[in-house]
Amino acid sequence: MLTDLTSPEDPADGLAAVVALRRLAEQLEAAEVERAMRAGWNWPDVAEALGVTRQAVHKKHAKRLIAAGVELRRR
Amino acid sequence: MFHRFTEPVRVAVIDATAIARDMGAMTVEAEHLLVSLAAGNDPAGHALRDVGLDPGEVREAIRRDFERVLGRVGIDAAGMDLSANCRRTTPRWGASAKQGLERALEEAKRRGDRRIRAEHILLGLLRAEHGAVPRILEGEGIDRDELTGRL
Questions:
Q1: B47 with B119: CB under 8 angstroms?
Q2: What pLDDT does B24 receive?
Q3: Is B23 in a helix, a strand, or coil?
Q4: Can you give the pTM of this predicted structure?
Q5: Nearest-by-Cβ selection for A17 from B73, B83, B85
Q6: Distance (Å) from the alpha carbon of B90 to chain A's nearest alpha carbon
Q7: Residues facing residue B93 across a β-bridge
């Protein structure tokens, strides 16, 4: 996916890329957290791997994963 | 502001949330409002379709823009689809969409209209200098001033 990270000449292109990368990162996070939880990971491990607090990752993803029918480990 | 929206605008605003979710966006942005406006049976919808922007074409243009933008920093996102996981989240309103609605309110006031109509929303979106909407219009070869003039 990542070929050769370059800095575009026009700042508008660089700033637009920041927005797109944020969106991509959000989508990747949603996909990978779900994959980890389906594989039996718990919240503290997912939080540590993402470098955020357990509360943050829980708040961000729990509702969605419950709606998706993922069986969540409590601790 | 919602009480001043005409019925087509209410529909467009609600549809934009569904479109954003369907496209895997975590926030509703100006470009999602553009998709819903393009479906409208009102002056905004007619003006957009007259220049070749039906809802399907706008969605395709959003996808192409995303890939093109990432391509400029060396990332090949063609064929990537991570959106499935996001479809269960209700997207929040993003800054570009909020700004579009604020500008729509200004356009309505400027025209002495108490109601906010679909064409005011489109005029609000067309005022953006940066972001996906102006890039998409440019990419599609659509003259912003000419489109503004149709409304």
A1: yes
A2: 86
A3: coil
A4: 0.89
A5: B73
A6: 9
A7: B28
